[in-house]
Amino acid sequence: MKQGKQFFWGGATSAAQSEGSYLADGRQPSNFDYLPLDDRRLKAVYKNQTNSILHSTGEEIYPGRNGNDFYQRYESDIALLKELGANSFRFSISWPRIFPTGEEQEPNEAGLQFYEKVLTELEKQQMEPIVTLSHFEIPLHLVKKYNGWENRKVVDLFQRYAKTVMERFRGRIKYWIPFNEMNMVLHIPYIGGGILFEEGQDNLSTQYQAGHHQLLANALAIETGKQIDPENQFGAMLAAGKTYAYTCDPKDVFAALQQEKENLLFSDVQVFGEYPKFFPHFLKEKGLNLTIQPEDSAILKKNTVDFVSFSYYSSACTAAEENGIDRVATNGYTTLRNPYLPKGKSVWQDDPLGLRITLNQLQDRYHKPLFIVENGIGTQDEFIDGAVHDDYRIHYLQGHIKNMMLAVEEDGIDLMGYLMWGIIDLPSVSEGKISKRYGVIYVDQDDENNGSHQRYKKDSFAFYQKIISSNGAVVFE
C-alpha cells in the first residue's frame, strides 16, 4: 500500500444487527426489529399481511432485537478492535434511539448519550468513526403511518434526525454515509425502504419513489452537514459487484449493461447530481409513475458526495435468456451461477478478482475516492474448545485484499480504506442468523439468542491483525 497517505483498516457493523437492547432507554422498534427468523425476511410485505410480520405472537424469533449485545459490550468490543490494530470503525446510529417514533420534536437524550460514549471509546483508542445514519433502519411508526420512504414527509423527518446528530457530534465525526446500500430498495423494499405493498398495485413505482425520496434526504443531509461543519465528508454507499455477461453473445452483453445501469442508478445521482440520460425513457418504457417536485433537481445537483463507498461480496452474472441456468445467492438477491467461479464455503461464489474489476469500474465512472466499507464471507463456523479454525475466511481475505492492493498499486485506484463486514459476529440481513458468521471475532450465541455472548478470537483474527500491521503486505507472502 502506498505510504504517506492515511489508509483506514478496520471493520463495520450496523446498529440494527449488533446493538440489541431494542427497547432500552426510550428506544422504540424499527422495521428491522420485525424481521423474523424465517423465509419471510427478504420477501415483499403486503399491507394485508402485516399481522403476520409486524405483530409478535410470541412464537416468532426476531434475532435483530438481540444483535450481538454491542449496546452493553461496546467498551470491550472496541478494545478488541484496537487489539486487532484497526484504526477505524464503521457503525450506524439507530434512528429510533434518537427519535423513537420519528415524529418527536425533541430527541431522546439517552440515545444521544449512548453514542457519546461509543465515540469517547473510539477517541480513547484513536480509531476514526465512519458513521451511517440509516443502515436498513427506520422507526416502525413511520412504516405504519407513512409507508416508510414512499411518503415525502419522511424526508423532512430524516432531516431533523440527521441535523440533530450532526450538530451534537460536530468535530467528532468527519466521515458520514447517510444511507446504506441505497440501491437495495429495489431488491428488499421493506428492509431498504420500510415499504409495505398493496396487492395489485404498481409496486415498482413505489420502490423508485422511495429511492427518489432517499436521494433527496441524502442531498439535504449533505447540505446541512456542510453548513454545520465544512470539514464533514459524505459518501454514497451501494451494494456493488461487477455484472458479467453469461457469454460473449451480444444479447448477453447488452443484458449485463442494462442490469449495471439500473444497479448504479442511485450512486450516479449521488455523484453527478442528476438522473442519467436513460432514466426518463426507462420510466416510460416500464410504465412507472414518479413524482419529482420542481425544486428537487436543484437540491440533487447542488449536494453531491465527496467519496463513493460500497459493499462487495461477490460479482453477478446475467443473460438475455436465463431459462435453465442455475442461480446462486449474492448480496440480498440471486444471480446466475458463473461457471468460471468456485462456490467455496459461503452461500455465494468467491470472486476476488471481481473486487479489482469493480474498483476499476467505479473509479472510471465516478472519478471520486473509493472506500470499501463492507467485504467478507458469511458462513458456518465450528467453535471447539474456545477456538475457530476458519482457514476459508483467511483464504477469502487474502484473495480479496491482494486484489484490492493490486488495484491501488498497479491500476492507480484512489482508495480510502478497507472495512471488513461483521467484524464481530452478528445476525445476517439475508437469513437473520448469527450462525451465518462474518467476523474474525466469534460470539458465543446461537440463532435463538442462547449462549454466553462472550467473544473469542478466531484464527482469522491473527491473520487480519498481520494484514493491518504490515499495511497489507502479508497477502503477497
Automatic annotation (TrEMBL):
UniProt protein name: Family 1 glycosylhydrolase
Keyword Hydrolase: yes
Taxonomic lineage: Bacteria, Bacillati, Bacillota, Bacilli, Lactobacillales
Active site: E374
Keyword Hydrolase: yes
InterPro entries: GH, Glyco_hydro_1, Glyco_hydro_1_AS
Keywords: Glycosidase, Hydrolase
Pfam families linked: Glyco_hydro_1
Coiled-coil spans in chain: none
Family: Belongs to the glycosyl hydrolase 1 family.
